[in-house]
Amino acid sequence: MKKFLNYIRSAIRNILSNKLYSTFYILGTAVAFILIILLLSAVRLVGRQARPFVNAANTIHISPDFESSDGDTYGIATQDIERFVKAIPGAGKYCISNSEGTMAFVNGKVRPANVDFVDSRYFEVNDFNFTSGRPFTEDGLPQAVILKSFAEKVYRTDPVGERINIQKTDYRIVGVVDDFSPLQNPNERAVIWLPYKFNKFVPSGGSYYEIDIVFDSDMPAGEMKENLGHALTGYLTRNVPGRENTRISPSVLRTVQENKYDFAGGSAFGYGAVVLLLLLILIPALNIMSLSSARIQASGTEIAIRRALGATRNQALLQMLSENIILSLAGFVIAAFLAGPCLSGIDRILFSGSSSISVLTGFRFDFGAYAAALVLALLAALISGGIPAYNISRKNIANELKGRDL
Amino acid sequence: MIELKDIYKVFSTDEIETYALNGINLKVEKGDFVSVSGPSGCGKSTLLNIIGHLDTPSEGTIMVEGTDTGNMTDSELSRLRNEKFGFIFQSFHLIPGLNILQNVELPMLYSHEKISSGEIRERAMSLIQQVGLESRAKHFPSQLSGGQCQRAAIARAMITRPHVLLADEPTGNLDSRMGREIMDILLRLNGEGTTIVMVTHDAKLASEASVQVTMNDGIITNVDRLN
Hints:
The structure holds 2 protein chains of 2 kinds.
Chain A: H1 2-17, H2 19-47, E1 59-62, E2 66-67, E3 73-74, H3 81-86, E4 91-106, E5 109-118, H4 122-125, E6 130-133, E7 143-147, H5 148-154, E8 163-166, E9 169-177, E10 192-195, E11 210-215, H6 221-239, H7 256-264, H8 269-298, H9 300-308, H10 313-352, H11 367-393, H12 397-401
Parallel strand pairs in A: 5-10, 7-9
Antiparallel strand pairs in A: 1-11, 2-3, 4-5, 4-8, 4-11, 6-9, 7-10, 8-9
Helix pairs in contact in A: 1-10, 2-8, 2-10, 2-11, 8-11, 10-11
Chain B: E1 2-12, E2 17-28, E3 33-37, H1 44-51, E4 59-64, E5 67-68, H2 74-84, E6 85-88, H3 100-105, H4 117-130, H5 146-158, E7 164-168, H6 176-191, E8 195-199, H7 203-206, E9 211-216, E10 219-225
């Protein structure tokens, strides 16, 4: 323990006496770790079913204009939706929504806002975290639920009970929901949710509602799609004149989870993320390795002196590695503290002029991402410092000392 | 105390083999002050490095206090260097990021001796005092003169209470007055019982040693043992 503390003390002394190198090392690793934490968080957001979209894997999202095998587009009439869903084997809860970009009047100011007209079941299908208030339970009352980041931008205090005017209708805000990321559900970009009965867009203009159908959780995705495809084909055959032979292929239907992968870059997302992650580690690791190599080469004489005074090869190696580990951990700590604020800052910039949520909204840094980044920090230290340190600790002491001054 | 038997050291490139040491046999007894002199490139420093186990011979046997060091592991050799030998280099080789006190204490970081940090500090301060640097203990090497650096290096070499002090041109980078001061310290240490092996160009300093070894072309040409 005493020896270990001595290494740490000695390493800190060396770090402080090489301030420029140490600063570059720490900043370089900090930037890399912020990117790594960001990427790992994104991977986990895409891969996991986090609130509010907890049924992503067994929910199929039907777009307002889904495409059939003949390339044409159709929809389900609003009055038919309930009957249609009930007839599908394995289908359980469902909800409807229609997303529109519009203007909201708040406190005498006009704000662009992405509005979702939904039925009250929307808040049963999706497990939103209400930071204030509650969901609306009546589709016929002019009530609104708004997103936390929109609320923070528009209202200074808790907006529950406040009024918001959209399309000349005054809505009373009944709830505020926590932010989420589009990576959790690319179909959802709303900042305000209103009862669908107040929707002036649908069914005018030939549009249809989007439908989210939740299937039994133990049903395979293929079977869900098969059942839904069959139901859609039947619906079109019966209800759309001239489309008796139209067949909806299950392959055009996607679960919300699959939509997440599509949004994040298709099925290659996982591989792409891993490649990107490796590059993110490799680039700073190579840069830091060259910095470390130069530093360790420069300290070759110092290591030789330490070895002449009695340090073993492993002690010399440990001495050099402890420097790198401390520097990498310092980079990680800075990254851990700055990742959140950096992201919020970028999000604020992206969100400030937008009516919708940015890709960074509701980005969550989970423990797993931090833990993985910490492991990578140690790995980077070992890779960047270990190889040159190993080489230098095995060099001939006499040769290293010959004619060299420190 | 130290016995070298048929020591060869060959430096090889693709084309040439150079014999830096060509069959050296030497005995260093306890309490000896051995000077090794000879022209540049004759193998003096190589010999000293091999005695101190900073380098390995191509061939031959080294016995330290009756033990053959040929089959020792890296950690055994490190312990040997730490406990039995103290090193003084021409370029001092103090670590610039450490102050004089920290430099002097450094070998104790690798020592197996059971000793508290307070005792290490006490021992280091006492040695620093003996070489006349007590007012410079918190100074860094760059703030000291060459002679002061070499005195600090002697204090560092003595901290583990080594049996043998190995000095490679200890006065080589110093003016004659400073060189004299260093030589006086070495003579005092020898008088107190420390065995010293010193490589030097300076014939006058070499003549003050109790055993004067002369080398040429990798071989020992003469050994004068004074009574």
